């Protein structure tokens, strides 16, 4: 008597979900049935059919390329951060050696332009004992706080860091020797509850400084300046 052949299953008898559940519970199925890997074919984007093994290799290759790109991005970011740290350390050490307002300002502006490749750099200290506007011909730039607010408005109100494209009058107030307009990052110099002034870096590129960029580096420099200013001001 001939052996009874199993009745083929129809699609209605075995759903996709059941197949997925089975394979999920038997992850070694294809390892125990390697011949199935050669029989299974998956449509390719080109229209040709490829085996499951070939498809898996293709997916792994794409993931490998993606991981290499991510690793490269992380490596580039680490290299940039290391350079930023070294430049910041060099600047802070130079600021600590400054013995006057003039030398403090000169160190800051020179470092910003040379090491950090900014087009413009400025420090403006609030001095309510003077009624004059900022004198761009002096290395020490002093101005009443109300005068600064009048020209820069939202950039300095609230004492929060600001980055973005500036109007021509704002850009020229911060950087009187600049030609044209551009973008800038502006950070307040604060010591406790007191606002001592601000630092700013600028670029003729209107997109270099934008609202989404971080300002932690400039905030660190501003914090260092806030602690050095009383000393150099007393010696001025």
UniProtKB/TrEMBL annotation:
Signal peptide: none annotated. This is DUF484 family protein. It comes from Chromatocurvus halotolerans.
């Amino acid at each position: 008597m001939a052996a009874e052949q199993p009745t083929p299953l129809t699609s209605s008898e075995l759903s996709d979900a059941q197949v997925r559940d089975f394979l999920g519970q038997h992850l070694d199925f294809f390892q125990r049935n390697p011949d199935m890997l050669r029989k299974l074919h998956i449509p390719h984007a080109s229209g040709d059919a490829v085996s499951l093994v070939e498809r898996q290799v293709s997916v792994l290759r794409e993931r490998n390329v993606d991981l290499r790109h991510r690793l490269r991005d992380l490596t580039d970011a680490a290299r940039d951060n290391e350079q930023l740290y070294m430049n910041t350390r060099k600047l802070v050490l130079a600021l600590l050696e400054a013995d006057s307002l003039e030398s403090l300002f000169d160190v800051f502006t020179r470092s910003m332009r040379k090491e950090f490749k900014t087009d413009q750099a400025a420090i403006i200290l609030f001095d309510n004992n003077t009624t004059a506007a900022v004198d761009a011909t002096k290395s020490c730039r002093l101005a009443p706080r109300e005068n600064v607010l009048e020209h820069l408005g939202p950039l300095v109100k609230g004492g929060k860091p600001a980055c973005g494209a500036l109007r021509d009058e704002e850009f020229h107030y911060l950087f009187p020797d600049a030609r044209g307009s551009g973008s800038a990052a502006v950070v307040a110099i604060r010591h406790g509850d007191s606002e001592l002034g601000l630092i700013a870096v600028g670029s003729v590129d209107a997109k270099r400084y934008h609202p989404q960029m971080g300002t932690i580096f400039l905030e660190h420099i501003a914090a260092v300046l806030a602690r050095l200013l009383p000393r150099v001001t007393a010696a001025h």
